[in-house]
Amino acid sequence: MQNLKFLKDFDLPPEKVFEFFSVHENLGGVLGATVTRIKDGTDGDPNGVGSVRTINPPGPVPAFEETTIRIVPNEEIDYTVTKGTPLKDHLGEIRFSPKGSGTHMEWKIMIDAGFPGLDFVIAKVLLRTIGKGLDGVKIPA
To answer: Residue 30 is inside which H or E element, if any?
Structure first.
């Protein structure tokens, strides 16, 4: 099992940062992949609880699906992989908290694969991809 953590501070209030990261398609630049919402949330929000996104990474990696499982507006987004990967366990948690006039974001990802060592390989790719993606993210004010 691998546990990853990404920390990022933004010069925007939590509601703006949350709004950006809650829209599935906005994750494409962060993940270095094409991200498309394929099912609207069941809570009245298209990107809310129950919404499903397809993530199509570049190269030979097959597309997979993630489902939003919990949202606390302006504070938390939790999701899990629900289709298309050899992972046997996966949980992503994104937390937003005020920091001065801006926002501190903490993104945790827990992965476990059915094949020994695969979670380590996936973690290395995610560390590089998401780390670089977060460094370059531009959230409209």
So the answer is: helix 27-31
pTM exceeds cut of 0.90? yes
Q: Measured in Å, how far apart are the chain's first and last C-alpha atoms?
A: 37
The per-residue pLDDT for range 61-93, each reduced to its tens digit, is 789 999 999 999 999 999 999 998 878 889 999
User: Strand order in 2-10's β-sheet?
Assistant: 2-10, 102-113, 87-99, 76-83, 64-72, 52-56, 34-39
Domains and CATH numbers, the chain: 2-135 (3.30.530.20)
Residues 57 and 67 sit within 8 Å (Cβ to Cβ): no
The C-alpha atoms of residue 47 and residue 17 are separated, in whole angstroms, by: 15
